[in-house]
Amino acid sequence: MKRLSPESAPAGTPRRPFGPQAPVGIVHLGLGAFHRAHQAVYTQMVDDAGEWGICGATQRSATVVEQLRPQGGLYSVMERGPSQTRLEIIGQIRDVVDGRTETGRLIARLADPAVRVVTLTITEKGYRSGPGGALDRLITGLGARAERDAGPLTVLPCDNLNGNGEVLRDLVRENLSGDLADWVENNVRYPCSMVDRIVPATTDADRAEAGARLGAQDAGLVVAEPFRQWVIQDDFAAGRPAWEKAGAELVADVAPYERRKIRVLNGSHSLLAYLGALRGYRTIAQAASDDDLAQAAWRLIEQDVAPTLASDGLEVLDYGRTVLERFTNPALPHLTTQVAMDGSLKLGPRLLGTIRDARAAGRMPQGAVLGVAAWMVYVGKACQEGVLPLDDPHAQALREAVARPTGLVESLLGLDLVFGPDLRDDQDFRTCLTERVAEVSRQPVVKTA
Ligand code: NAI
Ligand code: CS2
């Protein structure tokens, strides 16, 4: 079967220049599945004049470069709803760069006056990356931009982190000094954004189905649910695409939207991922369709999370019902083990924030504690029995903790990289956690994958 390309693309597919000379207005760091199914889709919907082409960069693997370069940047988004599938070709990516081997090209793009927005989806762990990582490249690029005095820039993170713009701003500030720091302070803005669209890793079966529908092989295919949401702090240094025309919401303060999304959606996602994987469920849809687990997720949302968001002024319970409904989409094979990844970094914003707020109010958030307990049992089984994958930037530290003779709860609670003295010294929390770990350890494996 022929490869998707400008030549083989269906009639009507926009033909735009692609490659190192192609004009772009946006650089994206962390060119993974989510960017292709979310920010690039929003941008294509509004970029009639063609001034917001995207140069996508990766720091970890050449795969996406090999997927998209031969296709002239074209790829398709296969939108899988419960009852229908829709395929759309996206041509908004005009250049792809491997930030490890084509560093000069990436820095030149970041210093290009025509580039006025940088977006990022580098995963929670990417904000801790060291030399040669995405942050390193961003900071080098800002330096080159300052030297050229290439004009103001907005750096817009699109990762699941509370206050992601402030987190990034502080990380950049920590690594700059002197005139460069002054230039960046005066010319770069770091708005926060809340992003939402469930985008599982693409499978070979997905690619085969898309190929049959397209009549061409698309190595860059991404799969997503129909739902999408983007709430962006309206604080841009030099303009932006009119994303609001594609349904994005521009607001003064994103924090309430971030807290609701990360605590309601991502918190229940992680709870279902760990409990579901331990019960033998391969997908989130299977876990969310299990009555016991669905009730546990709803208890987390209704009894634990909602009270901590009361002062934010956003509706929570109907939002939560919609989230749990989205999780049951049988057409979207989102693996429990994919959501279970990077738990040492995800637990904090998704569950520990809820726990800390509840404890400060004198409540014991049983559902959130159950989520932490499920993560502990998952880690324990992954380390001891190897029946579950442990994909975590701190996997070694987790293995060493589990190997200690002090018991699972004591060993993992002792990890300051996850918890902290406030939770470790909360005796009532420890007691509840120990009870939940015992409860989870007893739960039956209901489905052999
Ligand atoms: P992916 O695995 O397809 O892509 C991850 C991207 O991050 C890749 O380009 C990779 O090169 C880069 N990356 C990974 N580790 C890194 C590190 N240590 N330093 C720098 N770059 C690193 O994952 P996907 O689906 O694109 O998700 C990426 C992020 O997008 C998530 O971590 C999350 O923050 C956000 N997101 C994802 C959603 C989804 O459903 N997939 C939905 C909402 C947000
Ligand atoms: C998921 C998120 O992989 C995970 O940790 O919880 O990627 C989730 O799919 C998105 O945040 C949904 O917007």
Note down, in words, how this protein is organized.
It is a single chain. By secondary structure, the protein is α/β, with parallel strands linked by helices. The chain has two domains: about 25-250, 3-Layer(aba) Sandwich (Rossmann fold), CATH 3.40.50; about 260-440, N-(1-d-carboxylethyl)-l-norvaline Dehydrogenase, domain 2. The chain is built from 19 helices and twelve strands. The protein has helices spanning about 35, 40-45, 65-70, 105-110, 135-150, 165-175, 180-185, 205-215, 255-280, 285-290, 290-310, 315-325, 335-340, 345-360, 365-385, 395-405, 410-415, 420-425, 425-440; strands at about 25-30, 55-60, 75-80, 85-90, 95-100, 115-120, 155, 190, 195, 220-225, 230-235, 250. It has a six-stranded parallel β-sheet with strand order 5-2-1-6-7-8. Strands 4-3-10 form a three-stranded mixed β-sheet, sandwiched between helices. Helix 5 (about 135-150) links the parallel strand 6 and strand 7 (about 155). The two termini are about 30 Å apart. The mean pLDDT is about 95. It binds 1,4-dihydronicotinamide adenine dinucleotide and D-mannonic acid (CS2).
